[in-house]
Amino acid sequence: MPGHFEPLPGGGAAVALDDVEISIIRSLAVQLLELIGPGPAEDADVDPLAELFSEGPSEPPADPVLKRLFPDAYSDPEGTPQAREAEEQRAYSAEFRRYTENDLRAGKRDSALAVIRSLDALASAGEGGAVLKLSPEESQQWLGALNDLRLAIGSRLEITDEEDTDLLYRLPDEDPRKPMVMAYLWLGGLQETLVATLLP
After folding, report:
1. How far apart are CA 115 and CA 106, in angstroms?
2. Alpha-carbon Rg of the chain, whole angstroms?
3. Confidence grade of residue 45 (pLDDT, cut at 50, 70, 90)
4. Higher per-residue confidence, 2 vs 21
5. Nearest CA-CA partner of 194 in 2, 6, 3, 46
6. How far apart are CA 24 and CA 129, in angstroms?
């Protein structure tokens, strides 16, 4: 089980993590939370119906990682659209973002918090690492958070396709990006084995 998830009887997944691995994943999840930003203020006087219908931003985020985590819903994958088509795509994307981004951010925030809480519970159970056991629901939250972490790191490393990933394997040890690359590849392995445990 070291280094990869395995299925649990009755659903869910388990993975053995040492203290360093726990620290790395927790630190990355905290950084992701900071990047996503806080949720709506939890005030007793806030009207839940008003909050339900509150609108999110209409413009894409400036940070390239947030752009990757919250991409435009409408864009031309084939290349540069004509001016009129581009304007329509921007308008559609702005409208879609306005009504969905708050919920997307909340979901990503919840997944990152679930990772942090499960790691905190694991760390308090003993020293030297332990076996993390996740329920099916927690496994889904972990899967979402691992995906978000890889997207964030991949964006910082400017990975856009498979060829970029291949180049990462050939980076010299003295390259300052090497620790981030190692985290990216390790999280990819965790994500892949977690997906495998969740397949029927």
Report:
1. 14
2. 19
3. low
4. 21
5. 6
6. 13
- 61-76 pLDDT, tens digit per residue, is 888 898 888 888 876 5
Burial of 194 (0-12, 13-18, 19+ CB in 10 A): buried
The tokens of 79 are what?
């290349």
Angle at 74 between CA 70 and CA 76, to 5 degrees: 115
Mean pLDDT score across all residues of the chain:
83
Q: What whole-number distance in Å separates Cα of residue 143 and Cα of residue 52?
A: 26
* Total-model pTM: 0.82
Measured CA to CA in angstroms, residue 42 lies from 48, 60, 108 at distances of 10, 25, 18
The answer to whether residues 99 and 55 touch, using CB atoms and an 8 Å cutoff, is yes
pLDDT in tens, 147-173: 999 999 999 998 877 777 777 778 888
Rounded distance, CA 200 to CA 197, Å? 8
| Six token digits for residue 120 | 């905190």
pLDDT above 90: residue 22? yes
Please tell me whether residue 153 adopts helix, strand or coil conformation.
helix
Alpha-carbon distance 32 to 73, whole Å? Answer: 22
Q: Per-residue pLDDT for 4 more than 70?
A: yes
Helical H segments across 5-161, by residue range: 19-36, 48-52, 64-69, 83-125, 136-156
| Cα 136 to Cα 165: distance, rounded to the nearest angstrom | 30
